[in-house]
């Protein structure tokens, strides 16, 4: 693995990340261009990826193969899933309907 750059989440170069995920480097660049992946960048413009990006690529691959989503639909679904996670986090993992049933 390469030297860590920038934040604690950026740990491998684009080439290493592509090899680790099995993505063709051009497809990886397309994901970045479309905003499906948002890597850190160094001053030279190099892309750096971390563990969170691995989970994101796995989610993208599941949505592409399982639902056959195109890139536009992927962006919408990924955005919605991210918003759901943020809302759940803001609620502290509690869901109001479930909590009312449990008597909280």
Automatic annotation (TrEMBL):
<protein>
    <recommendedName>
        <fullName>MerR family transcriptional regulator</fullName>
    </recommendedName>
</protein>
<dbReference type="Pfam" id="PF13591">
    <property type="entry name" value="MerR_2"/>
</dbReference>
<dbReference type="InterPro" id="IPR009061">
    <property type="entry name" value="DNA-bd_dom_put_sf"/>
</dbReference>
